[in-house]
Write a structure and sequence with these properties.
- By secondary structure, this protein is α/β, with parallel strands linked by helices.
- About 30% of the residues lie in helices and about 25% in strands.
- It is built from 14 helices and 19 strands.
- The strands form four sheets. Strands 3, 5, 6, 7, 8, 17, 18 and 19 form an eight-stranded mixed beta sheet that branches. It has a six-stranded parallel beta sheet with strand order 13-12-11-14-15-16, sandwiched between helices. Strands 2-1-4 form a three-stranded antiparallel beta sheet, covered by helices on one side.
- Helix 3 packs across helix 4, helix 3 packs across helix 10 and helix 13 runs antiparallel to helix 14.
- The chain is globular and about 60 Å long.
- The two termini are about 15 Å apart.
Length: about 425
């Protein structure tokens, strides 16, 4: 089978091209990929090329397909997997399989599997580790967002706290505790707000910070203070572009500092502020992985010794986290649509990945079988004046508080130009 795919050949060398997939053998599962959301990690892989820990050293001669937040349909199943997978089933994927400790993952390491492709053959490691997961929803973009939501879920689970006299860590955020999410109104931060408000282990106080008023206002319009109160959470949005911001954040905690702090930006002042607002036995999660291998920030080691403050660093999840994400979305408790700000076709992936840090907004959602310019949802109305496709998409999104939604997806897939 031939497929169009975006392949990585080296540093910032991405190419959309047609390629052949191997025939399906007894240990293969072949899929049709409908949607894939672009992750900053893919930009980092493109930036670092063969120096990236998950990209093969010989990528120049054996290019890999990029993209790892994908969802679609199973179209062929090898004999050895027919007891588990069926043609016609939908799927989501946990790219981090860690088979025998390996860092390899679809979207980084494989020549025939990645989210920026119309079709793919799933690696045997993914199947062995149970990382190809059946998906029952008829909304594909929820499946694409299951992986980033899974990363949020994993981050909350990776937080930990201690008890005096015991060496056993209590995993997870402190239930009923005080939590701060710093630089957190980007796509992953919005997912964290959603999860903090609607998971089973909620804080009593949630403080969300950023330095962009427009992004803070958008977040507050989606996850309102009133809705948080219904969930038993006191929610504050704070623009930290102010004098004595750290002192103000500590005041909001009642002077105690925070039990759980997640930092969503690899920026030295933000990381240091995260450490400075920790309370007794406070846990700082450095979510945002830097591209600079020598990145450093100061941390109060007095507090490490006497206040038991500690640090973890997670930005991924496992298969159980992915299943939890899918379950919460299917139950209507989480709506990851808030992450999405742009829609595009496979034709836009190369430019989108390479320019991702310069493109404002949140998640860029790609539909792999259509030809469509990368377009902000906020621009649908203007484009709709000349293009009836965007006019209808604008109408459907406005009916959902300006968010991408299942009805818009179905309309797009039915009416957009094929690539």
């Amino acid at each position: 089978m031939n497929t169009k795919a975006v392949r990585l050949y080296g540093k910032m060398d991405l190419r959309l091209e047609e390629m052949a997939l191997p025939e399906v053998g007894p240990d293969d599962v072949q899929v049709k990929i409908i949607s894939d959301s672009v992750c900053m990690s893919t930009h980092k892989a493109a930036l670092e090329g063969e120096d990236h820990k998950r990209v093969p050293n010989n990528v120049a001669d054996h290019p890999v397909i990029v993209g790892h937040e994908f969802c679609g349909d199973i179209i062929a199943v090898g004999e050895n997997w027919k007891d588990k997978y069926k043609v016609g089933d939908k799927f989501v994927i946990q790219p981090a399989h860690y088979y025998k400790g390996s860092q390899d993952a679809p979207g980084y390491s494989y020549p025939y599997c990645g989210g920026s492709s119309q079709y793919a053959n799933i690696p045997i490691e993914t199947l062995i580790m149970d990382c190809l997961i059946p998906y029952s929803s008829d909304t594909y973009f929820y499946g694409s967002l299951a992986e980033p939501v899974c990363c949020v879920v994993g981050t909350f689970h990776a937080m930990y706290h201690t008890k005096g006299g015991s060496y056993v860590h209590e995993m997870g955020i402190k239930e009923g505790g005080k939590m701060a999410l710093l630089a957190s109104v980007g796509p992953m931060g919005l997912g964290a707000i959603d999860y903090a408000l609607h998971c089973d282990r909620r804080p009593s106080l949630l403080v969300v910070t950023d330095i962009d008023d427009a992004r803070l206002k958008r977040a507050e319009s989606i996850f309102t203070v009133e809705e948080a109160k219904k969930q038993g959470v006191e929610l504050h949005y704070v623009n930290t572009r102010m004098e004595n911001a750290t002192e103000y954040l500590r005041e909001l905690s009642g002077g105690t500092g925070y039990d759980d702090v997640i930092c969503f930006a690899p920026v030295k002042p933000v990381v240091e502020q995260a450490g400075d607002i920790l309370g007794f036995d406070g846990c700082l999660n450095f979510f945002a992985g830097p591209t600079d291998s020598k990145f450093k920030a100061e941390f109060n080691w007095y507090n490490v010794h006497y206040l038991y403050t500690h640090v973890v660093g997670t930005s991924g999840g496992n298969s159980d986290d992915l299943r939890e994400a899918v379950e919460l979305m299917n139950a209507g408790r989480l709506n990851p649509a808030a992450m999405v700000t742009h829609i595009g076709g496979l034709n836009t992936v190369v430019d989108t990945v390479c320019s991702l840090p310069k493109i404002p907004g949140g998640k860029k959602l790609i539909y792999n079988h259509i030809d469509l310019p990368l377009t902000a949802i906020d621009d649908f109305e203007e484009k709709g004046k000349e293009d009836p496709l965007f006019a209808e998409l604008d109408k459907l999104c406005k009916a959902h508080n300006g968010l991408w939604n299942p009805e818009a997806e179905k309309y797009l897939l039915a009416h957009a130009k094929a690539i």
